[in-house]
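Hey team,

Sharing the Universal stress protein E run so nobody has to redo it. Sequence (296 residues) first:
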Amino acid sequence: MSQFKRMLVMLGPQMRHTPALQRAAALAESSGALLDINVMVDDVDTFGLMSDGSERERLLTHNRLWLADEAEQLRDSGLDVSTDLLLTRDPLGSVLEQVERLGCDLLIKDVQHEPVLKRLLVTPLDWQLLKDSPVAVHLVSDIRLPLPRQIAAAVDLNSHGAGEHLDEQVIHTARALALQCNAELHLLHVCDASKTHLADFGAGTVTMPGFEGGVRTAQRTTFNQLGDHHQIELEHRHFLEGPAIRAIAQYISHSRVDVIVMGSHRHDALQTFLGGTTAHVLEHPLCNVLAIKAGH
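Structure output:
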């Protein structure tokens, strides 16, 4: 049985058989989880297209009919499906209310690629969900197959205490998902030794000769101990070096990874990775992130 019992997939009014919906349906089919499909229509009339109400009603009617037809097809395939159509001026608040009301433990959504100008004016919804969602969030950019075939657990060996516990949760979640999907489990860490220092006295970072090499060696040792503890094959361990965004992007371009499982305490890095100005993100659309919360 899956670790996730009820999944909420969030769609926009123009979305249909998107990667997120395909992934959600496949996960529900493989696990027996309940599947809730929500279409959220933004009621902010930015361009005056809905000023007389007729355009809004046409859009709502069209989506009600599509939802009913989609739910019927999915039920015919054996899934337990519910649907809802929400007209809202607060997409973030609405989806969080739905998560709580339905008792969902996984939120699935297509990655929203925002234009640079819009990112300067508002915080993309994806970033807000990574920060504020009380449950795991699976952001889907594109998929090779409905079910993932290669899953990487990304750990942060720079953290201690609660961070170490979250790394254990990341590995547990990734392993459970891999077992459910009959997928390979990989272990991933990025070591950026250049950001590690002994002290900062205001006049600059203080380091010692060979210190970066020592950090790298220590983290590699800890990484392999973690891999040994969780019985992850050597060829499935990926110790990357350099700036995190660039290193992950290069890893994606040279691997078949379908999902990277990460702890949500790294949401700042995830924000940059999923929707920031870094060109690497847009060049690698097959990176899908499953972000989990501490205590999940």
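The CA atoms of residues 13 and 62 lie 9 Å apart.

Ping me if you want the raw files.
A.
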